[in-house]
Amino acid sequence: MAEQETDKGRRCMLVAASTVAGGIAVGVTAVPFVASMLPSERAKAAGAPVEADIGKLAPGERMTVEWRGKPVWIVRRTPEMLDSIKQSVDKVADPDSNKAMQPRYAANEFRSIKPEYLVLVGICTHLGCSPVDRFAAQAEAFAADWKGGFYCPCHGSLFDLAGRVFKNRPAPDNLIVPPHTFLSDTKILIGVDQGAEGAKGAA
C-alpha cells in the first residue's frame, strides 16, 4: 500500500514537473512570436514625419531625404525652371493636376506650396523605378520639346520640373507630391499636411 502511494506521489510530481516545463517552453516560444507582431522602434520611426533643412539648398539644386522608406526630392527651382513649366502645359498628360497625385494645396501650376520649392517622391509611377535629374535639355534626344525635368531610364518616361508626365509616355500619372509643410523659411516637414494642427509642435 505504501509502495503504491509512493508511486502515485512520484507520478504526480512528474506530471507537475512536466506541466511546469511545458509552460516555460510555451512562454519562451511565445515571447519572440508576440514581440515580432509589435512594430519595432525603427518601423515606427519609418512612418514618422521627417524634417529637412533646406537652408543650404542653392537655386537649381536638389536634395534627397528618406520618408517611409522612399526617397523624397526637394528641388529649389530657378525662375528659368519655373518658366519652363509654363511652356510644358500642352505637352504633359495632366497639366492641371486633376488626378490626386498631390495634396489639395499642391494642385496648382507648380504643384507646390511655394513656387520655388518642389517636393516629390522620387519613384516613377510606371513600374517604381527611380528617375534621374535632367534639369536642362542635354545632348540626349529625349524629346524635341522637352525643356528638362526628370527622366526614367527604365522605360523612357519624361516628367517636367513640376513632376508632370509627358503625353504618350509609359508612366500613367504625375510623380507623387507627399504631404508636407513649411516649419520656417529653411525647414520643411515631410509627412504632415500644410496647415495641419500640431505641425509646428512636431518640429
Instruction: List low-pLDDT spans.
Output: 30-40
Radius of gyration: 28 Å
Q: Count the strands? A: 9
The CATH homologous superfamily of the largest domain is termed Rieske [2Fe-2S] iron-sulphur domain
Separation, N- and C-terminal Cα atoms: 79 Å
Largest sheet: 3 strands, antiparallel
Principal-axis shape equals globular
CATH class wording of the largest domain? Mainly Beta
Please write the string of helix (H) and strand (E) elements: HHEEEHEEEEEE
CATH topology of the largest domain: Rieske Iron-sulfur Protein
**Structural class, from secondary structure content?**
alpha+beta
Across the major sheet, the strand order is: 1-9-8
Number of helices: 3
Number of domains: 2
Residue share in helices?
Answer: 25-40%
The CATH architecture assignment of the largest domain turns out to be 3-layer Sandwich
Mean pLDDT: 80
